[in-house]
Amino acid sequence: MTNPDYQRIAEAIRFIATKHNQQPSLDEIAEHLDTSAFEIKRLFTRWSQVTPKTYLQTINPRRGEKLLASAKPLPEIKSQSGLIGGMTTFGHKVQIEGWLPSFYKSGPGYDLTIEYSVHDSPFGEMFVAETPRGICKVSFSSGLPLIAFVSNLQRLLPEAKLVRKEPKPIEIFQSIFSRDKPIDKTLNLHLFALPTHINVWRALLTTEPGKLIHHKAIAEAVGRRKSTFATLNAINSNPIALFIPSHRAIDPDGQAGDYRWGLTRKHAIHAWECANLNV
């Protein structure tokens, strides 16, 4: 899963994003990165099978407006308790379990052990935390030290025991990043959140790779049409980077909007999703 190209890709994306109205040439991108046009094209193709020219098209606001206009209505999300299945991410089955009242008995995380590890991805390092019931946290490091993520998790769940483990390969992650045919395994998520937030994340899981949606449509899907601000807050507080696809939520006017792990990474993920897709 190691991908040493992402930092160079991110640098190129930041430059392209500031120049998308002028459509910078391959030579201009190469000059900015102090390399050759040939190397830039090879870098993008190796990373995502997307050429720089194709990538330029994915970050154009007019394209965002077009994708929003063609978006299918989201299915109605009804509140459920206990284990929630019937969802997918990148073609892989997803099952969500909320936190039981017993976890609050003597404080958040009571009598719970959480194992954490660091993994590589096409978009940089990921901090991954798991309970015995499933993954509870996936976050891009964005250059921050590991201790920052551990400290944040401990503040959220002060009674939990946090244990570092060796980063063994996670089969579903590997399958998604390599674009292999989805394997017959379920991504189990154990989420510490309000049911209303979980419903928003379930709505995001109904979207398709390479497609876009806006937060007003998500608010309608979860039956909270008048609570678009709360819906946007739930999107931005998504604890599972990439696999709960909050990167597909953009502003109603086609602009990229915010993203918890940085706008550059949001652009990068969308371009990566669009590779080999007719969108």
Automatic annotation (TrEMBL):
Keywords: DNA damage, Transcription, Transcription regulation
Pfam families xref list: DNA_binding_1
Signal peptide extent: none
Domain HTH araC/xylS-type: 10-107
InterPro entries found in the cross-reference section: Homeodomain-like_sf, HTH_AraC, MethylDNA_cys_MeTrfase_DNA-bd, MethylDNA_cys_MeTrfase_DNAb, MGMT_N_sf, WH-like_DNA-bd_sf
Keyword Metal-binding in record: no
PANTHER family: METHYLATED-DNA--PROTEIN-CYSTEINE METHYLTRANSFERASE
Protein name (Swiss-Prot/TrEMBL): Bifunctional helix-turn-helix domain-containing protein/methylated-DNA--[protein]-cysteine S-methyltransferase
Organism in which the protein naturally occurs: SAR92 clade bacterium H455
